[in-house]
Amino acid sequence: MSPRRFVSLRSFPGFSGVGVCLLLFLYLPLLVVVVYSFNANSIATVWTGFSVRWFEQVFASEPIRQALWNSLTVAAWSTATAVVVAVLAAVGFIGMRRRSSRFALALISAPLILPEIVLAIALLSLFAWVHVPLGIPAMILAHAVVGLPFALLPIHSRLAGADWTQFEAAADLGADEWRIFRRVTLPMLQPAIVSGAMLCFIVSMDNFVMSFFTSGPGSTTLPLYIWGALRVGLTPEINALSSLILIASIAVLVASHLLSRKKA
Amino acid sequence: MTRDGGRVRAREAFTPRRLRRSAWRRPGSGTVTLATPAVLIGALLVGAPLLLVIAYSFLSRASGGVGVDTPFTFDAWRRLVFEEDFQGELVFAPQYLQALWRSVWMAALTTFIAVVVAVPTAVWIATRTPRVRALLLLAVTIPFWTNTLIRTYAWMIMLNDQGVVNNTLRMLGLPPTALYPSVFATFIGLVYVFVPFMILPVYTSAMKFDYRLAEAAYDLGATRGRVVRRILLPSLRPGILAGSILVFIPCLGAFVQPTLLGGSKVDLIGTIIQRQFRDSMNWPFGAAISVALLCVTMMALLVFALGAKRLAAQGQRASLV
């Protein structure tokens, strides 16, 4: 019998190599976008020298400012709608029959699973049928539909795992339903509400497909602006804008990660 | 009997149904009224629009192109399979069925590639120390929440004729190749955008893996390859199953990646739907294709449900959320 060598249980041959390569694969293209946004050349893909003129151009651009404003408007309103609806639903679901609350939850979560384009054209069809004009209000509704499951799932799971004696204690001490909701339920749900709202907001800011089908004249969001520019050709201005969006979203994600770690 | 009878009655008094029918509600639990807005959104903005799409697919094209018109017809569905030739006769024209098939095939291949790269990565992350693990996990979640459009656009810069990949090839003295727009570029874009959806569920499964099983297998003389194949992979099945659905379905309806990276060379179901609703303005036909896409989605979900049931019989739980 050959002597047995020591094998580490926690390592498998080649796995770390694949992992490192995949991380490089995920981040290299993003890095390239950021690097090329400092390119002096007006042809987006040919490197000639360092320059920040494209960033200056982005900050000075009126259409981009308008698109940013539209994105923020749609994201803020759809997030507010989704979070309020989600909190009410999470509390209401407890009073419902298990089967009907499950069915409602499945229907609301369907946008997570269905191909987004189908949902987008379905909403477009609905808006055309009931004569809702396309534009910011229609986009807010569409984004709220997509964002609702992202808001509902963390809130619902936190409430489902709640310690019910707290509520009973509050009731025994004479609190009415509204007081229990305000003084016990809401504080308990607060972290879930914050993370749900954040997910909702990010999903709305990034959303392209729903916006593409429900936008009207004058309601161009940032992703729609980028799409329009890409159809014309690669411009360094889009590089700079993309870098700014990337850096902003990575900063928000890292910040929320650090915050949640500090709390835990 | 009498002794038991009292106990049975006492237990019956607390059956969930009786509790629900009584006026008593658990403190802090809302009434059904509170869930109304959410249920309305689910019914009116998810359920009803999907039914409306099915209805639209049986109507005819509106004169202006936007919307539909009344005569009830099977034209849209007929167009999916047949087209009229010069004599006005219907001939079998499988171009749209081919596009549907191409979409299914591309989504399946993307899913397969995602499994192949995500499984080692997820296990690698799961076996790091908690500190490193949290960092790596953040690293794979960040792309998940960054803009899909920008991430697709990044590959337009990478694969361009003057792009990073071709410049690297030139530096190595290799001939530059036209990489974009192409089917290959579309594949790269799809894998790139959707691979995090595979890593995260597989990681969840890998965290539950009991490494004593691997130890036992090694003790019994198994080689490393055999441990991976026979011990590790079967424990990761719930994650792989859930991840496959989360990659396959969005890939199926993708239209950003084929439009930007495939150009006019890649006609997939998503790009066709987009054209029918925005450019060619044939809503009934677009609706018919969407219903076909929805059917494929349902079949994929059915396969998932069957797989989850089989895994449940073996004590493993696969879940999409």
Describe the structure.
The complex is a heterodimer of chains A (264) and B (321). Chain A is an all-alpha fold. Chain A has a single domain, classed as MetI-like (MetI-like fold), CATH 1.10.3720.10. Helix content of chain A is 76%, strand content 0%. Chain A has helices spanning 15-36, 53-60, 62-94, 98-113, 116-129, 136-160, 165-172, 177-206, 209-214, 222-232, 236-263. In chain A, helix 3 (62-94) runs antiparallel to helix 8 and helix 6 (136-160) crosses helix 8 (177-206). The longest helix of chain A has 33 residues, at 62-94. The mean pLDDT of chain A is 88. Chain B has a domain at 101-271 and 305-313: MetI-like (MetI-like fold). Chain B has 15 helices and 4 strands. Chain B has helices spanning 2-12, 16-21, 32-56, 75-81, 95-126, 130-145, 148-159, 164-171, 183-208, 211-219, 224-235, 237-252, 256-262, 269-278, 283-313, and strands at 60-61, 68-69, 82-84, 90-92. In chain B, strands 1-2 form a two-stranded antiparallel ribbon. The interface between A and B is large, with 106 and 101 residues.
